[in-house]
Structures are given as structure tokens and as C-alpha cells.
Amino acid sequence: MDPICTFCNCRIQGSFMVIGGKNFCKAHAEHGYEKCTGCGSPLKGQYSTYDQGKYHSDCLRCSKCSDPLGQTFHKTDGDLICEKCFLETLERCESCMDYIRSTSFVVDDKHYHADCFICSHCHRTLTSLGFSMVNSALMCHDCSSTKKTGFVRADLPMPKIPQPSQGKDNLLRSEAGSLLPEDSPWRKAKPWTKDTYEEIRDNIVSYKLLRQSGISHINVLLVGEIGVGKSSFFNTVNSVFRGHVTSLADAGSMGKSVTTQYREYKVRAGDDREKIIKFRFCDTMGLEVEGGLTISDVEKILEGRVRDQTQLSGGIMPNKEGYRTHPTLENQIHFLALVVGADTVSLMPEGLLDKIKKIREQAAMRKISSLVLMTKCDKVCPFTKKDTSKVYHSTEIRNKVMEIGDLFGIPPMNIHPVRNYFSEVDVELYVDILALSAVRQILRCADDFLQDMIDRERAEDKALREKIRNRKGNMKQSRKDKRSSSCTEGSGTESSEEKSRSLPPPPPTVHRTSTKRMGKVSFGYKGEDGFYVVAGEQVKEKKRDVKGWTKVKRNTTGESGYIPTSYIQF
Predict the structure, then answer these.
(1) Which of 21, 83, 110, 554 measures 20 to 30 Å from 161, CA to CA?
(2) CB of 269 within 8 A of CB of 205?
(3) DSSP string covering 398-412, please?
(4) Distance CA 321, CA 36 (A)
(5) Beta carbons within 10 angstroms of residue 531's beta carbon
(6) pTM of the model
(7) What pLDDT shows up at residue 300?
(8) Across the strands, what pairs with 92?
(9) pLDDT, tens digit, for every residue of 338-348?
């Protein structure tokens, strides 16, 4: 007997479908499936069940981001949200940086898991102990006493224990505590878009050095303690222009400086290996409190006395291979970039801090500008770690910038947070924009250094020319005074030397001609007719000696007149 379709009650001839134990002809097979609560279409294959409803996987969507909810989702204030959006409503633990899903402790607006609310030194729970904040770390009063740690204790109130909260209100509180409003960043910046990336990149690639500077590259010296990411910063910048993550410079952490040579790294624009951008990063060994690179070594590098690939271990000495005896402006450092780790600056030893300050002083003595590259921003701010574009809205990053400014005496505008590529294998737009912004500021400052150098040279040249003019004027006046004192003036005054010489009688009215000779005037003379000669001047004999007088012609003016024959050397 032919089966009967459950929907149309017609006999089915040929193939048919059994759905839920019921028979359906092909034309009405869809009526055998249950309907999706969301869209009303038949539920074929896998579906999700929620609150007495059944949904296609694509129909059960997050009310915030509209993405499919997937296997795990949550209901907040009557709305369904995905796991990703749910996590954004939660606080992060200040200690482990993981999300807090249950009861937490709050100290100075910083949240801690119950298991993480412990002394960072002895690891005892702080729920019933007095505690202090030491270098951003929690310590019980026993461990934070000056007798044990050498730190001054800052007592804090007992922590608040907020009730677990979810939803939109909790998200706003989280953003207010760690992120500034979107329209109120602590540093203004252009939109984090591809257009901004292209604009900054093109500005750097097309940068042209001042023609008057006479150099082909700007040399940027990277200086910082071991492990802060000096070499990694160059690799990041190089990755930006190459379009993929590179590792040309040795980078890493081995407890000692990975860099052992002085290196000068060029940056090439994209795949055009011949187009070299007009700056070089000069990398050195990491700084240490004792040993390693000394202030004297850095001075020699600033002066351009160290050649590329010179070994730095053992110091930089005049007789060492790679030492440059006569450096030029092309070899000298034109800008100093101090690299500081955001995660370790609070723990920087006093000796290392002093060394960096002295290096900056040596650069300032040479009129070299400097700024700070604050690396590892993602290590101190979970929001920046998740989204680099939040760096200028992060209160944690802002506070670190202010802390570094106070430590080094550098204005915040000269402190630039950056994020180096570390585990990534592909470049990211936001990381690239942050690195490019720092490089652009370096070029701007270096350009100011070159312009100032040119202006100073011009001022020095002007002063030298003025000095030469004054000297010539003084010499001219001295000769004039000497001539005046040695010549008979209208008053009849004569020099003592002329008084000792008896002048011949006035020249006769008739003179005989003679062969013309060239002579040199030994003494200055000025006659009553106004004709005069200057000592040392070349003259041409016009009429031979007649009773002690000779008529001469001045080579300088062409004037002729009589002077004593004894005043001329032929």
C-alpha cells in the first residue's frame, strides 16, 4: 500500500521522506520540520534550544555585536550576548590579568581575584592582614617594613568587596576606571585608519634632508637597559616598511645584552631594496649598573668615533679595531632615543637611572635632542594588549608616561609609547601606526637639530667675518695714523725720523728726462701740493733725480708728483 502524506493526505508514489516518524511527500517535506523561533524557517540539521525556543545557529545572535552566539552565551538584563561581549563587561584581575567572574577585592580601583589577593613577597592572603602598595605590588605590613625591604610603606584602606555584577552598567564602570572617554584621550591622535597609516608612512619615506647639512642619513642612537626592546623596536620599524614581521637585529632576553656590537641599521622602503629611507638606527649593548657600556663609550659613539660592527665588549679605545680617529658630521649621532620598558621602569636601580641621565646630559652638551620610547605597553595595560588603538585612552599608560617624565625630567610630549612585535608573524595596522608616529617625531626633532646646527654655523661665520672686517679696519686706521704721523700735515708737523733727514730744496722748474724705472717708497710723504705716497707703495719714475727730487707716478691711482729721491728704493 502506498504511504499517505501527513500534510496533504495524498497517496505518495515513488520516493518520500520520513520526518519525526511521519511520512511526507517531497513537495511538502518542509512541513515536517520544526520551525525556528527566530526566523520561522524549517530547522534542518543542528539547532540550538533556549528558553523553550528552537533556533538556527545563525538566528541566535548577540544583541551587542550581532555575531552568532555559538555554543556559549549569556543573558544580561534580558538580552542575549556572546562570550566575547560578556567578557568585556567583566573586570580584569590586576595580578593575573584574567577576567573576574566571581567575588573580587578592590584596592584603589584595582580588582583582584580572591586567590590573587596575596602578599607579593610572602604569598600570605591579605583578607585579614594590613597591607601596603610597594612599587605597584601588594605587600603585607611585615614584608613592606623598611627593615626588610628598604621601601617606605604607604598604608592603604581595607579593600572593598563588590558584589558580582554583569551587564552594561558593569562595562561602564570598567571603562571609567581604566579607559578615558572616546572623545577625551590623554593625547590627541589622528584616526587609527589605513589612510593615517599611509599618510605617516609616505611622510617618512619622502623625507628629504636639509641640503645644507651635507649628510645622507640621520643617525638615531638607541640606548636603554638590557631587555627593554631596543633591537626589537628596530625590527618593528623595519617590519612596518617591509610589510611583514622581520628580525634583522638580534633580540631576546638572556639575562645579558644580546647585542654585543655597535650596529648601524638601514631601513628600506617596501620591496624596493634600493630605496633607503633617510635615517639609520644605531644599536648598542644594553646598559648595566656595573660594567657593560660606559659613559665614556657612549660619548665616543655620539662623536661618531665607532664604526659599524665594532665589538663593544672591553670598551672603546683609540687603538681598538673599528675606532674612527677623524669622524665627520656624517658619522656623528644626530638624535638620541632612550628606550624604557613600561613594565620595569618602576624597578629601575638608582645607579642605572643616573647613568641614563648622564648620557642624556652628554647628548645635550652636543646640542643633540632626545626622547623616550616607552616599550611593552601591552605588558602594563590589558586594554592596550587587546587593542593597541586604546593606548591614548588608557589611564595606566598615561600614568606610566608621567612617571617616566618625573624620573628623567623629560616632558610628557617627548615620551612615546610603542608596542614591539614579539609573538606575531604578521604585521598589524595599529602597531604599525604607533611605531610610525614615534619615527616621524624622531625625524622632526632630528631635522630641528640639523637646522639649529646650520643656524649656529651661519652665526659663527657671520661673527668671524665681522671680526675680520674689524681687524682690517683697525689695521687700515693704524696705517692711516702712521702715515699721518710720518707725513707733513697742513700744520707743518713732521715725524722725528723726517726731522733727522734734511729735505732737499724745492724742485726746479725745468727737469731733464731720464729712463723710467720702477721703485718702492721707503717712507710716506705728503707735499704742499697735496700729492702723497704711502710707505711700501710701488711707484714709476717719471723724471730723474734733480737736486734731490724725483717725479714719480703712483701705480695705484695714476697720480704724479715730486717726492724726495732718498725716499725711493730703485
Answers:
(1) 83
(2) yes
(3) HHHHHHHHHHHT--G
(4) 79
(5) 16
(6) 0.54
(7) 94
(8) 99
(9) 999 998 888 88
Sign of CA dihedral 116, 117, 119, 123: negative
pLDDT tens across 361-416, in order? Answer: 999 998 899 999 999 999 889 889 899 999 999 999 999 999 999 999 899 999 99
Query: Which residue's entry shows cell 541566535?
Result: 60
- The residue type found at 564 is P
**Burial class of residue 380, CB neighbours in 10 A (0-12, 13-18, 19+):** buried
In degrees, to the nearest 5, what angle opens at C-alpha 247 toward C-alphas 244 and 253?
135
Contact (Cβ atoms closer than 8 angstroms) between residue 60 and residue 74: no
Full DSSP string of 350-365: HHHHHHHHHHHHHHHH
Q: Where are the alpha helices (DSSP H) in 491-551?
A: 496-500
Q: Residue 262 forms beta bridges with which residues?
A: 310
Going by C-alpha positions, the residue among 543, 524, 525 that lies closest to residue 535 is: 524
Q: What is the CA radius of gyration of the chain?
A: 44
Residue with cell 638607541: 222
In the structure grid, which three cell numbers stand for residue 305, read together?
668615533
Rounded CA separation 277/217 (Å): 8
Contacts of 42 (CB under 8 A, 6+ apart): 30, 33, 34, 35, 36
Largest CA distance in the chain: 168
pLDDT at residue 167, as a whole number: 37
- Are 251 and 279 in contact by the 8 Å Cβ rule? The answer is no
- The answer to whether 42 and 33 are in contact (CB under 8 A) is yes
**From CA 570, how far away is CA 521, in angstroms rounded?**
9
Do 486 and 500 form a contact (C-beta atoms < 8 A)? no
Cβ proximity of 84 and 65 under 8 Å:
yes
DSSP 249: S
pLDDT tens-digit map of 60-77: 778 788 787 766 677 776
Residue by residue, DSSP assigns 330-352 as: TTS--EEEEEEETTTGGG--HHH
Burial class (CB in 10 A: 0-12, 13-18, 19+), 286: buried
Q: Give tens-digit pLDDT for 97-156.
A: 888 877 778 887 888 888 788 888 777 888 777 788 777 778 888 777 643 444 444 445
| pLDDT above 70 coverage of the chain, percent | 81
The pairing of beta strand 525-526 with beta strand 532-533: antiparallel
- Quick one: CA dihedral 423, 426, 432, 436, positive or negative? positive
CA–CA separation, 302 and 363 (whole Å): 7
Count other C-beta atoms under 10 Å from residue 423's C-beta.
Answer: 5
Which H or E run includes 380?
A: helix 377-380
Average pLDDT of the chain?
79
